[in-house]
Amino acid sequence: MVNPYLQNSRNYPVKLIVDIHSHCNGRCTMCPYPTLAPKQTQGKMSWDLYTAIVDEFAELGLQHGFQPQLTYCYMGEPFLAEDLSIYVSYAIKNNIEVYLNTNAAAMTPKQIDALLACGFDGKFHISVHGITPEVYERIMGLKFAPAMKNIHYLLDNYDQSKICIRGVDDGWPNGEKQRWMDYWADYSVKLEYLPPISRCGSVNRLLPHKIRLSKQTRLYGCRLHHPLVEMVILFDGQAVMCCQDMAREIIWGNVAQHGITGVWNSSVRKKTIDLLYSGKPISKKFLCARCEQALGPTGLVQSIIQTAWKKIKIPQKIHQRI
User: Fold this and answer.
1) Which three-class secondary structure state does DSSP give residue 170?
2) Residue 197's CB: how many other CB atoms inside 10 A?
3) Alpha-carbon Rg of the chain, whole angstroms?
4) How far from each other are the two terminal CA atoms of the chain, in whole angstroms?
5) By the 8 A CB rule, do 293 and 199 touch?
6) Tell me, what DSSP letter sits at residue 124?
7) N or C: lower Cβ tally within 10 Å for the chain?
8) Count of alpha carbons within 13 Å of 228, Cβ hemisphere only?
9) What is the mean pLDDT of each run of 10 residues along the chain (322 residues)?
10) How many CB atoms lie within 10 A of CB 64?
């Protein structure tokens, strides 16, 4: 069977996650960063490499008629870069849509003002894992009060509808979810309450029991289709499988040497896409076989049904009668 999602595959990405640096100030309990970072090479991306990436990505958008999307630091905290607004400004001037993922601890009013001054008007996704200071600090390894002060400065000076607050429930006590929901109810922000995931087994205690026991499986793709649309580029130009591959298990190639399209169309990437979307039996040693977002046969059917259902438009008159 030919996987229907491969009909939408292309020879270029439409979204980039660029590690302008690889450092994080948080120590979230459900994130593998504290364990993996000491074992991995860390650093800051050179300006020449960054501008080369942005220039090529912008050209791809023009050639193929799409709006390029970019965000920063798939394992790190972007606001640790003192000159974040310079990176953002360069991307915006090249007609690239930028959005930011942050824990807000380093998102100071000065940083926010610099972003707004450079013309940033994208979305913020802010991690707030708990609303009781003790819960927040236990899970995130950050001080609650300074981070919340920064968030409230943003709320007072930015379009709240462009702000998403994400809460990952890693052992929240009874009542914490409701307290978290109630706290944000007075604001116009979007809320995402999420369960923790294992990042392909990098946080082993979070790996679902059924995945841990399976020796091999058949995969029919990614629930979010990251590998078909998104490229994650490390500070040194290496491109990894996707945002879940925090252990850097699968390297597609190096953008510094071969460019975005060269890596995207590399034999390594094509082989991994085939393994993920073909439905062939594969070992759980393969990265995606340990990922909660991977689609098995049942998941594929459910995903296709959901996609088709969203395309059904109920006629206005019928909708009114309902």
Assistant:
1) coil
2) 17
3) 20
4) 39
5) no
6) E
7) C
8) 19
9) 77 97 97 96 97 98 98 94 96 98 98 97 98 98 98 98 98 98 98 96 90 77 92 98 95 98 97 91 89 82 57 43 35
10) 12
